[in-house]
């Protein structure tokens, strides 16, 4: 092993790691950025359908899940969505707001990767891509990291190795192992921003391909109003991905299929001679309306239902409950819920409270953003803050 001495070792050249390395490098620190992947930042590349939803205009602490909901406040305030937008603009990149404050890069996600790479290079950072990380040791005055055929001796070590989602492109649990090695706790992890699966008898399979526009979906106390897509295995679409982060196994998911009006009033005003499926199809996709009507017995003209049955149909339209059997797991999840417990990390610097010089940033930390650019903003903000403090 060849021994090398450097100020900062950053493990993981994803969104948070590159931001941190660039910031530390431009502050004059000597930095090496190590990643086992041979291709740079694959998660950024596949993000936002290839257009990278790089931030959100409405970023605020309430849009993040963590055992400590206050933890994100300092980093998000130190480096805001507007700071990142300025960086994007300074590279001549353009962007557009798709919906709900979500900003996408017109030049595609490759342009965001090129921008971050240029920032890292501007900081004079040493790259080590395609390099396996071996043992990490705490030594007097810092750390030693075995990586490839080199041992790096550093005062500051930053863990930016992300979560467990999409192992196909390089996600591993090394960040959690390192946290445990240094005595930090882990909040149990699970797949989040992920499609939900249902029992086969739950009507969904036969409806694959149906889209419910702007349904309101609720799990526990949170509700999201966006599209829902029915698939062969269950349900997906932005509203479902959002509630998946809050959903607990065994709990029902509630769908309000007519969030803009009272279903009871709608049914009362409908033609009494029309079939229930025909009436429901005025507000819902036809295939869905037919399957739903079949759930209330034979599909009959409205006048043949008893008042209590009409009331039951109205209730179901505003609060249709289904208990998911599970999720599609890390293979299909955008992020990992849980992670390194924030109790062990100083929120103002991202340094471990009991291990001077050790930092945790990005998705490896117990911080999970909503769908819509919030997770990248956490990566940029936490990366920047650690970069200032290494
Ligand atoms: P990230 O995963 O980016 O980087 C971790 C790095 O560590 C990787 O380069 C990996 O190779 C490396 N690594 C892991 N284990 C290692 C080991 N053992 N040795 C060496 N290196 C190792 N978010 C958002 O805000 N807007 C969006 O549009 C999307 N879209 C999206 C689509 C899809 C399909 C997914 C899967 C995810 C998203 N996300 C998203 C989420 C976003 O990609 C994610 O939150 C950030 O990439 C997290 O940044 P990190 O730097 O923390 O981890």
Automatic annotation (TrEMBL):
Source organism superkingdom: Bacteria
Q: What is this protein called?
A: NAD(P)/FAD-dependent oxidoreductase
- The keyword Flavoprotein appears for this protein: yes
Keywords, in A-Z order: FAD, Flavoprotein
Q: Where is the RsdA/BaiN/AoA(So)-like insert domain?
A: 191-335
Which InterPro entries does this chain map to? BaiN-like, BaiN-like_dom_sf, FAD/NAD-bd_sf, RsdA/BaiN/AoA(So)-like_dom, RsdA/BaiN/AoA(So)_Rossmann
- Which PANTHER family is this protein grouped with? OS12G0638800 PROTEIN
Q: Where is the RsdA/BaiN/AoA(So)-like Rossmann fold-like domain?
A: 7-388
Gene3D superfamilies noted in UniProt: FAD/NAD(P)-binding domain, HI0933 insert domain-like, Translation factors
User: Which cofactors does this gene product need?
Assistant: FAD
